Amino acid sequence: MSIAMTNASLDDVLQQIKQQTGYLLLYNSNEIKAVRGITINRQQAPVEEILREVLKGSGFDFSIREDTIVIRVGDRPLNSPPQRVTLTGRVTNRATKAPIPGAMVLVKGTTVGTTTDADGRYTLRFPKRQNVIIAVSFLGMESREVAYNNQTELDVQLLDKVESIDDVVVTGYAQVRKESFTGNTTRISREQIVEVSPKHMIDAIQVFDPSFRIAENISMGSDPNSLPEFYIRGQNSITTELNNSADISRQNLTNNSNLPIFILDGFEVDVEKIYDMDPMRVHSITLLKDAAATVLYGSRAANGVVVIESRAPEAGKLRVSYNLTGSVEIPDLSAYNLMNAREKLQAELDAGLYAFDASDVTENTYTTNQTYYQKLNEVNRGVDTYWLSKNLRTALNHQHSIYIDGGENDVRWGIELKYAGNKGVMRDSKRDTYGAGLFLDYRIGKFQIMNRASYDANNSSDSPYSFSQFSHMLPYNVPIDETTGKYLQNLRFGYSTLNPLYEREYLNNFNRSNYRTLQDNFAINFYATPHFTAKAWITLSQRNYESRVFVDPLSSSNSAFATPQELGSLTVNGSDTFSYDANLLFMYNRNFNKHFLNFSLGGNAVENSYTVNNIKYIGFSTGALNSPNDAAQVDGKPSESKNKTRLVGMFLSGNYTYDDIYLLDLSVRMDGSSEFGSDNRVAPFWAAGAGINIHNYKFLRDHPVLSRLKVRGTIGTVGKVGYAAYSARSTYTTSSTSDWYATGAGHILYYMGNPNLGWEKTRIADIGLELGFFKDRLLFKASYYDKKTIDQITDVTIPSSSGFTSYKDNLGEVSNRGFELDLRYNFYRTKDLEMTLFGNMAHNKNKIIKINDALRAYNELVQKQYEDYDDNSTQSKYAQTYTQYVEGGSIYAIYGMKSLGINPANGKEVYLRPDGTITYEWNAADQVEIGNTEPWAQGSFGLNARWKNISLFATFLYEFGGQRYNSTLVNQVENANLERYNVDRRVSTDRWINPGDVAPLKDIKDRTLVTRPTSRFIQDYNTLQFNSLSISYDFPSKLVKRWGLGMLRLTANIEDLGYYSTVLQERGLDYPYSRTINFTLNLTF
């Protein structure tokens, strides 16, 4: 440094050194007041030389440790020196007894202090006086203050610092003080997660943040292999596929463009890894919702970010943690209201399936009447088969995890073993996961080196039979040969007499899959100074997936026209994925009096490559021989596709705080990706936020009532990749035919690319308020947001003469606006009893701002779906509602014709055209918005109570203000096929039968016309769900120690206790819902 001063005091010189170097200075200002008259002129000299020169002859000496300069009294006495004392001692870690080098030891209230050496020892000299307090601190540990009582030695032990879960925000790159952060986040602890669901953490998130919602899947119910679909703050993607199926499989969920990204310990992972993760290994989950919170993820952040921190090993003696969760899963069939055998036969009679008019007797009517009496005989002799339960079971499951950790301050390690067996309530369905992990944490000097290696595996099996096959079965059919006790291959009555129980019991149909994942995370942290840190980390991941679906050659699902060499099939699908994610981060923070600055500069590079293979074998002699070697031939041509994507990004983030009152956040990121068009590879993203901690003003500090008052606001732009790899470039594929040319196989243009294709961009504005009363025992949070997605990726229609009908471009615009409320009140608290009520609510309004010609063409295609309808139409596609896109409308809108109800005179439906005229004719062009599935509000509420060692946690979910198209009334009542299937009881009570009947449903004798979408089936959808109830008991610590344990806890948890809905519809069409009782044992020794 350079310094030029004349006749200056030592204090002035030291302040100049501090200003230029940024070093922290420790000294007694009263002692150095007498040192004056210093003249110095040095240019670009080392700080050590300057200090020696200015302290020469002053009686003071100095030492420099890292970025701290300590000025202390030297060996030579000063004139009239004050009486001084010397204190020595050692600073250690209380848990590990290891020394702590570099700890700060200060005389409280002064700048007199020193730091510990490599062995944790210190020597502190200070003027003797009364009421001296020694303060000891170290980064990452709890500070301690100890009274000085004239002793000459003082040893101090420090504890590892445990941040409150509510005090910090985890962004995936770093931890930020919540007090100084302007972004909108929600953080959930492990304890909160397991109280709601000890097996699946995703199920628990929606309880604690109403903006995170799992979409209801009435088709797949509790299927353990059907991953949930969820979103944060509404959906913003438009699809032009004519498919309203609710079946969310592992494959299509991967391409779900409304899905948030998941960050586990700094690395992006797929949702399946989170779904299969043991909640007991989680430290916390943080939801990042607005631009200020998510901008560091740039092009991946538009749907929100979910950050998961796993538990790290702790220093100390060897510790073993074991967790066992046993569960009983019971099928829930309460949503079904099917007829019994007598009711079903009577409904057939009312519908006119049998003719008893003597004047109209034909051979056909004689046969049908004979069938009626045969059925009646079965009913009269007590046949009433409850088919719903025939392929179900009460599943007994168990989940285990063992974690062993230990080590000292400089070396920590942890070993994890886990297994989770999950049998579904349908026979032949299961999902078994198991894995192992090794974590190492090595600290030497200023470096910290960490490595986490993990292996995860999964074996899954789906039932080859849909639950709907059993719910449709006729109750007067007997499934078992009463003579032999074996299942019948063919049943006596019905259009299709095949018995699914026969196939399940005697054939070898199966649907199995598995994956194996090996992942290694390596990180190096360099703590250069208390203010500057550099981090580098990389993850390598390899995943192999395979599924096998086998159809027995004797199965009824084989084609009736298949030859013996074509009976039976084995479909094998596989994928291999390799990815790496490398990150580099530099962080600097500094305090200047009341000013605090925090800067981050970082970047990352990501590559994902995957190969997908598909092949189908046909022709099997028997179901017992079902390997590819046993097949007669390959069906068609095997396929293989390879994809590779790369992303590189850099970001700069800054945070400024003044006196913990005024807050400012600024961030910018630049991303480049191979997934975008060649002319649009790079895009910028940014965010800004400001806030005020009003409760930190002097006049409000320590206020007896108001403990928190914070206002904040953020705005920024983030992005999303909402399309498959290579959508931006023209792609060729090998011809699927067997044509072979002199030069080899032919190739054809598979997809027309767009070199200008870029990111979807979402601008998010967010304002929020936080209020706390009575030391935060009553907490209230409110926020309002405005999300506008522009440059939305949609299909653009082009003339078919080009060889394609569409290509992708950035054209659509969608808006989501809403608010979120959260209230928590700790209304009773004593030593033994504590009770807390909580509740939250989220409101979102979705709006389509702009559509293009391709979406208009899609709407026309929807109308064409009904063109082939005639008076004999029975196809279910005509009864289905399809999404349509209209500017000013919503992506949640339901379209159909407005209905005036059923005419009591003739049992026919009367429609209202958009022009106000009335008609009996349904017309696709007259469809309008008749409902909206988006709720006005959704959220949760509950009670958390603790009495001594017993804890109770109850949660409820609610939703109101939306509508549903009651497909059960359409398909199982009005369009019910009484000849073939069992039906809902409302067929007999809600349908028109005779002239003059005022009924909501059409003539029961009308069995040929399928009802097309109409407002008659729109119903208000309000629900209340008793989501979970958990009771736990912590054994007293004295008793636990007597048993040689560190902790012992027992928990009973019940999931999905009750469900109420204003829409009475069948739920669990392909896989039933269930109720689960969990028993959990947690122990540590």
TrEMBL record:
It comes from the Bacteria. GO terms for biological process: iron ion transport. Pfam families: CarbopepD_reg_2, Plug, STN, TonB_dep_Rec_b-barrel. It is a multi-pass membrane protein. The keyword Transmembrane applies. Residues 23-74 form the Secretin/TonB short N-terminal domain. It is found in: Cell outer membrane. GO terms for cellular component: cell outer membrane. InterPro entries: Beta-barrel_TonB, Beta-barrel_TonB_sf, CarboxyPept-like_regulatory, Plug_dom, Plug_dom_sf, Secretin/TonB_short_N, TonB-dep_OMP_SusC/RagA, TonB-dep_rcpt-like. Keywords: Cell outer membrane, Ion transport, Iron, Iron transport, Membrane, TonB box, Transmembrane, Transmembrane beta strand, Transport. Belongs to the TonB-dependent receptor family. This is SusC/RagA family TonB-linked outer membrane protein.
